[in-house]
Amino acid sequence: MSLLDKFMTIYGRAPTASASVPGRVNLIGEHTDYNGGAVLPAAIERRVEVALSPNGSFTTSIQSTRFNGRIERPSGDQKRNDWTDYAMGALWKADKLGWLSGGVDLFIDSDVPDGAGVSSSAALITAILRAAAETAGVGADPVDVAKHARSVENEYIGMPCGIMDQMAVGLARPGSALALNTRDLSFEVIDIPSGWRFVVIHSGVRRELADGRYKARFEECQNAAEALGTDALCLLSSAQQEAVDTLTDTLRKRALHVTSEHLRTLQASSAMKASDLDTFARLMNESHRSYAEDFEASTPEIDALVTDALDSGARGARLTGGGFGGCIVVLLESHLEQDWTTAFLNRHPGTWQV
Ligand code: GLA
Q1: Which helix (H) or strand (E) element contains residue 337?
Q2: Are residues 214 and 186 in the same domain?
Q3: How far is Cα 324 from Cα 208, in angstroms, rounded to an integer?
Q4: C-beta of residue 235 within 8 angstroms of C-beta of residue 33
Q5: In the chain, is it the N or the C terminus that has fewer CB atoms within a 10 Å radius of its CB?
Q6: Could you give the number of structural domains in the chain?
């Protein structure tokens, strides 16, 4: 059944608009996006699709294929700490923008897992904003939609994320990567070379961005930036670089990660353009080491998976996303993809391919 048919079955009429948005995997560039640095995410095949319609009441109805039952919330409701907050936050923003007001009937069809670090929330918020803009007959620019989607996370949800996820799900296409400068939002789309395969594997360890550890890293970066006298920790002058050694041990390590990760990401974009797999893979592996040891955002389970991935023939492997669980992204030569993935998943019960 199509998305529109499913909406009709549930709500008994046609939606005013629909939208389909992919999840994303970050290939390299972790926690650089709120520090003025570079990121290199790519769209994944899994998508969030939404259909919606204003319903003329003051109650919003939400039904998703990922969760049981229909949930009703008063329109304009505040955050209450469950997954429907992302929908309510997007509708709050759509109302502020004058795109959609009052109660809404909303249907969500998604195969993007949540709590996996593949941006299910950015995809859901973006899809709702796009459908809301269409309902209002507004041709919304994708970069503006990404900024609006980020403000839902920052202001409604209270998650101090950067803009990587919203730009990635809004602008990236499967088969290519988005080399994004988060300082000025300029970007370049780079085709993933045909002999490369990025496989995304869920560790089985669920992560929650809202659980405070992401925020703690965000605040440490802010403190380091403030002590060094900058608002972009990724972009230090040579004098500021030297002053990194005067920071406390924790802040020094956080600064080391984001400054080196920014450079690795720029180099990785060049390596991808040059189809230089050796260099790209090496940068992924250095990125994981830095993310685990200097940023201290990995877990023993994830480290073990990364090590086994490399020992069993992957060229690059690293924890991807906000940290503390979720997925690893693995770079393979394309001819190894199927056998390698099957064997890896068999060796690690509880893991699964995203
Ligand atoms: C999450 C955030 C992003 C980014 C990554 C880490 O996905 O939403 O803004 O900071 O973590 O790179």
Answers
A1: helix 337-347
A2: no
A3: 8
A4: no
A5: N
A6: 2
Ligand 1 atom at shortest distance from the alpha carbon of 161: 9
Active site residue 294: no
Mean pLDDT taken over the chain: 96
Q: Is 257 in the pocket of ligand 1 (CB under 6 A)?
A: no
Residues with Cβ within 8 Å of 155's Cβ and at least 6 positions away in sequence, in order, are none
Please report the beta strands in the chain, taking only residues with DSSP state E, as ranges in sequence order.
17-28, 38-54, 59-64, 70-74, 104-110, 176-181, 187-191, 196-202, 316-319, 327-333, 352-353
Tokens of 172: 């990236």
158 and 200 part of one domain = no
Distance CA 291, CA 317 (A): 12
Would you call 231 exposed, middle or buried from its count of C-beta atoms within 10 A (0-12, 13-18, 19+)?
A: exposed
Within this chain, do residues 169 and 250 fall inside the same structural domain, yes or no?
no
141-168: average pLDDT: 97
106-134 tens-digit pLDDT: 999 999 998 888 999 999 999 999 999 99
Specify the amino acid at residue 192: I
pTM, to two decimals: 0.96
